[in-house]
From TrEMBL:
Pfam families: ParB_N. Residues 11-103 form the ParB-like N-terminal domain. The lineage of its organism: Bacteria, Pseudomonadati, Pseudomonadota, Alphaproteobacteria, Rhodobacterales. It comes from Paracoccus onubensis. This is Chromosome partitioning protein ParB. GO terms for biological process: chromosome segregation.
């Protein structure tokens, strides 16, 4: 497949000739405001936006691939031209460039992240059909027979974006389960949708219940998916006793009463059991630096 070609004959374009449609996420007002403040302070754009040159029926058009926020900021400031890097490429290459530019350079919320990664998976496997799970037999699949992601996609994306392969699989799977209508509704939610919410939504098999949960989040009636599912369950005056809850209560009580020395000894002696659980929880929450966490756990075990 031919690589995208950089066109070096143009280094700037009139802003009103750049198309900003057909993008995976809308422009953030807060993001634009931040860039406007920077442009006012330094007076120039230090990083050109990336655009695609398309030829349709003899007419040349340009579409923004990376830099929609910079373009919006320049427009609001009244600029008529903007620095650009222009590429000629295919539709799939354009989408990959848009996705990678956002994933590597922007602070994305969990919803945008899973949507970008799910789209990257679909585009990557269109561009490299030989890597699609199942296409090359058992060697192209994960040990889990239900996993439909190709090894090549996960490895390439993890390396490109500096993520763990497990994290890539989780994010892409959560994004792939969302329909366009659900994405639009969740974007309008008053509370930011967490990665755990998105993973919980992906596990809801009942279509009606799934739509009810998404609506509840979008309308701000619940804080999270767990609360929405709890509210949807019929009342039970005599619930069965949950042995897991009893075990959890006992562990929590013992931990709260233990001294720090005893807690450290417990962590050290049970390190091999605890560390994968803690890392797994951190990846689910999408809040911690996994590499730093692994280092910290190793240091605890070594003491």
């Amino acid at each position: 497949m031919t690589e995208p070609t950089l066109i070096q004959t143009k280094t700037s374009l009139p802003i009103d000739q750049i198309d900003v449609s057909d993008r995976l996420r809308p422009v953030s007002e807060a993001g634009v405001a931040t860039i406007i403040a920077s442009l006012k302070e330094i007076g120039q754009l230090t990083s050109p936006i990336t655009v695609r040159q398309k030829r349709r029926k003899g007419e040349v058009k340009w579409q923004v691939l990376d830099g929609a926020h910079r373009l919006a900021a320049a427009t609001e400031l009244g600029w008529t031209e903007i620095p650009v890097r222009i590429f000629e490429c295919t539709d799939d290459q354009a989408r990959i460039m848009e996705i990678d530019g956002n994933l590597s350079g922007a602070e994305l919320n969990p919803l945008d992240t899973v949507v970008f990664l799910a789209t990257r998976k679909a585009v990557y496997e269109r561009m490299h059909p030989e890597t699609k799970a199942g296409a090359a037999g058992a060697a192209a699949r994960w040990a889990d027979a239900t996993d439909t992601m190709s090894v090549a996609f996960v490895k390439a994306t993890a390396e490109k974006l500096v993520m763990s392969e497990r994290h890539v699989r989780r994010l892409a799977a959560a994004g792939a389960s969302l329909g366009p209508d659900e994405i639009a509704k969740l974007r309008s939610a008053p509370r930011q949708i967490t990665l755990k919410d998105l993973q919980d939504i992906s596990r809801i098999d009942n279509t009606v219940q799934r739509y009810d949960v998404v609506d509840a989040l979008a309308e701000g009636r619940v804080k999270n998916v767990a609360a929405a599912l709890k509210g949807a369950q019929p009342a039970n005056d005599n619930p069965d006793k949950d042995p897991v809850e009893d075990q959890f209560a006992a562990l929590a009580k013992a931990w709260s009463r233990a001294s720090m020395v005893a807690r450290r000894k417990f962590v050290t002696e049970h390190f091999s059991d605890l560390s994968p659980l803690v890392v797994d929880e951190a990846e689910t929450r999408d809040e911690l630096d996994i590499a730093s966490l692994r280092t910290a756990l190793t240091e605890v075990a070594a003491e």
